[in-house]
Each structure stands twice: as structure tokens, then as C-alpha cells.
Amino acid sequence: MNFACALLLLTGSASAWTADKAASSRRDILNKVAGAAAVVAAPGVAGAYEVPDLLYPFEGLEPYIDAPTMKIHHDKHHATYVTNVNKATEGKDEVPILDLMADALEAGPGIRNSGGGHYNHAFFWDEMAPHDKASKTKPSAQLDELINKSFGSMDEMKEKFEARAAPGALFGSGWVWICVNQKGDKLELVGTPNQDNPLMKGVLDEVMFPILGLDVWEHAYYLKYQNRRPEYVSNWWNVVDWDKVSENCKYAVDNHAGVPVRG
How is residue 182 annotated by DSSP? Predict the structure, then answer.
């Protein structure tokens, strides 16, 4: 129902108002019309995506990721991606951000860069937890089996991951991922530039389903680590929530699809 319909409904019922309401001012009537129109229009309003609240305080990942970095990263960088993907999708049907990933390259920079940035960061926040909690988590039997099958052991996986995240291996800005392959029977270690991710067709040889990802843009670590990216990467394992990564793995294997995110 549009604004005109709302106006007709309100004005059409005016004659039935009782005498004590007949003195309502023109301003009152217009306010009611505007309110009705806003309610009617609300489902179609753009700005569907939002920055999800963290599941822990900004200082929750200390001393491995500092509070100032978390606040700027979450409230500024992630928020900018959300603002821009909302602009890029204004006037279009509202869909989960995950649904935009497959054709992001074809859709253009607004979806590829900003939509990718939103998905990647929403995914990133939820796979971490304060060290006291993270240290009590462990890979599920399913994830442990896939790690051993794909990399040899957890230690070997971490070693290969850290090598892939090194500045010489992933130059500039980007992400490093552990993914479930298309068949759902093996894990793959990959890197992507900028805000690309393995769900996007054309980024890698085949679409893969991330279960663990690390942001190696400088804004993710520079305040604390400056140019010491390897130190940031090795310390990051202390806040990885393996229960969540195990959930991601199960979802990807069972559904042959990317993991939904909040926001």
C-alpha cells in the first residue's frame, strides 16, 4: 500500500470521527497520515544489511588482538562496507548477504568489494572468542578427521596456514581461508585478495566453502603489530573458537554451501 492509499484510508474515515475529535488540528491529521505511510513503506526501505554486534567486548580478545583495533575495525571499517553495500543494493530485492557472493564479480565493485567486506567480517567476528573460552574448544571429530586427511595434523595445518598468510605469499591486503571443497570430503587452504572470498565464482578455480578465515589487511593488526604480520597470525590461534569452526565445517559438508552470517 503506498502513501496515497494510506491518505485515502485516513481521510475517508474522518467523517466518522466523534465530535470531541473533530477539533484535531490539521497538523495532527498530517502526522497520522505520515505515520501510516511510514508503516506501510517500511518493508521496502533500503539498508537491509547491518554490522552485527560482537559476541564479546572489544577488549575480549586481548592481549592477542587489542581493543582499539577491534573498535576501529568493527565500528569503522566494517560499517563502511555495510554502508556501501546498502547503497549498491538500494531499490533491489532484499536477500541474505550470502546470496550475493556467488555472482559478486559479475555484479561489480559495490557487491564484490563492499558485499564481500561485509560477509567476510561478519564471518570473522563469530569464529573468535576470548582466550579463556577459545582455549577450552577443540575441533569436532569430523573436523579433526578432515584436518588430518588434508594436512597431516593440526600443527601442520597451522604451519601451512601461517606460511600462506605471510606477506611474501599474500602480498598486500587480503584473507587466508580454510575451506571445504565442492565434494565435501577435503579441506583446502587458499588466499584471496582484497575482500574477495572463495564463495565468489571466478576468484579461484572452483567455488569453495570457508569454515575459517583470517583478515590480513593492515587495519586488522597494525596498531599492535605494525609490520609484524607473522606475529599477528601466530597469536591469532589463541582466540580461534574451534567449536564454531566445527559448526561451520558441519554446515558446509552437509549443505555444500557457504555458512550464513549475522547482519
Answer: T
